[in-house]
Amino acid sequence: MSDLLKSVKYLKGVGPKRAKKLRKIEISTVEDLLYYFPRTYDDRRHVTKINKCIDGERVNLNVEVCGVGTNLRTKKRLSISKLPVKDDTGYANLVWFNQSYVLNNFEIGDEIKVNGKVNRKYGKIEISNPTYEKKENRNNIGSIIPVYPLTESLSQTELLKIISNAIKGYNNKIEEILPKDLIKALDLYTLKKALMYIHFPKDKITYKKAKERLIFDELLILQLGLILIKKNINHQKKGIKFKKVKEIKDFINDLPFKLTKAQKRVFNEISSDMESEKSMNRLLQGDVGSGKTVVALLAILKAIKSGFQCAMMAPTEILAIQHYQEITKLLDKYDIKCRLLVGGLTKTERNKILKDIKEGKIDLIIGTHAVIQKDIEFNKLGLAITDEQHRFGVRQRAALTKKGYNPDIIVMTATPIPRSLALILYGDLDISVIDELPPGRKKVDTYAVDKTYRERIYNFIKKQLNMGRQAYIVCPLVEESEDLDLLSATDLYENLKKSYFNDYNLGLLHGKMKSKEKEKIMVDFKNKEIDILVSTTVIEVGVNVTNANTMLIENAERFGLAQLHQLRGRVGRGNYKSYCILINEGKTDTAKERMAIMEKTNDGFKVSKKDLDIRGPGEFFGTKQHGLFELKIADITKDMNKVKEIREIAMKILKEEPRLNNKYKKLKEKIICKFKDNIKDISLN
After folding, report:
1. 510 bridge partner residues
2. How many CB atoms lie within 10 A of CB 99?
3. Which residues are 582's β-sheet partners?
4. What tens digit of pLDDT does each residue of 486-508 get?
5. The model's pTM
């Protein structure tokens, strides 16, 4: 075992108690410590005198402890610790909140260097929550000090000391993963040098060079892993060569609407793939309401009429049920046997469906993750489709693929992202984009307001209901949480039913309900037997009720922008003027900025771009769902130019050494380690 994989508790200054604290910030090994990067830095090369301190600024002071520290407790049980200090120009107090233990570290006469924010009160100077170093421990005097993200009860001083010990004790044990000629050709720091200077840079140059090397490593490993997954898929045995199918033309002519140019273009791309011997692995991307399902349905018809079975996997039962209802209507005249497979079936019903799938009596199976369970065997699976790809992991998609003999794959997503970014996140797929909405698709007027508008909003909803329309009210929770002051869907439903909307029919929908209950609620809502559907985000994707024209989203600040856009996409599907009202209780500038973009645009690509900028790719995409490892220092939205450059380098490396078995052996080990959850998808043996 590598020395870097040793438990952090054996490191000098850690031990079992601190190791437990470190686990809260996902540090278990020495390597985790070395790769726990600072969030910012304090430049301590310039020292200020006490009499030159300016209110609100961060300063470095060289001071002497000149009195006994005191601990005070406020009525709200807040602990305030004060330590008097001086220099040759004046006096100040160092102040810590809820860190009463800190005073035990000082004695009168101690010389310390501190860094903190100046707070001038009544002519006195306080330095709030300062980091400090005693004279005898000053390893970093005159340097740039890292500031790390922390967990409760772990101080900057503690973590700084621990990481400093890790660098000193283990820097020589860090193994280089890149060959010397590549490091030299690209003018990169060695890995040892990069890890040392990312924590303790000497200046801007050493910091930038260290960061450059670590970003390069992350993006190279990411790119190589995804390219290898794609190569592995594409170099499997031959795929299915589907026929040209005359029914396609009839189907298109029978549709109650015309396909857009974008839909036709994308289906031609899919059709071309299906008619080749290569296994199709294609991402079908399009904004809410762009008509992805119809394009997928054309592919399904082509596969079935070529003599193969199809499977479609949706992330929720509600969406699976809706797909089933709409698809069976459209395929009714084509003698296609379609069945629904969801979790709520009886054992007898399920067993009958499984038997029919195995015997080839079912052409198309639509369901949730139930479709990929081990006991399901297909007779001749030719096409597998996953809807809302961001809800499924790479392994789940691979499990569906393995149900057939190299079936063609389509994955659909309504989370629009820039094409260059999609190439990274879906590196194993070819990409088709429906970049056009059908004519007549209504713009949804969006308004962000605070809770004081609630009564006015309810009156507006009543007005819409009286005109024959229907409405959604969406909450983030099913039941009230003690930790979050949010409206609960169940509580709101009960409250509205008894008060504001007691003359109307209300329905409640959430993920904890049984599938038959959910199905009944959605059927009733579609049939206009329910006026207002109070729901959690289970209606986020795919739900299509053309008479519903108003959506109210409670606690809108709790949702990502892409999710708000998806929810908004449930209205504006019919011929009626549509509205989305966001009740925002977030007070921050970020919350206001997010609401403003929702008010400004209905364009999913613009919304998603803003969501990426604000939240970053990790939270936006849910990297674990994508089968990607977490990026600790690279930012694929900000480092897009680097991404393109490094992709080219990755391709050259694989051309030079396809199996990475010689000079890239250490790099190969790192790829295997990082992609461990998807290692079966990477061909490196």
Report:
1. none
2. 15
3. 448, 553
4. 668 888 899 999 999 999 999 99
5. 0.67
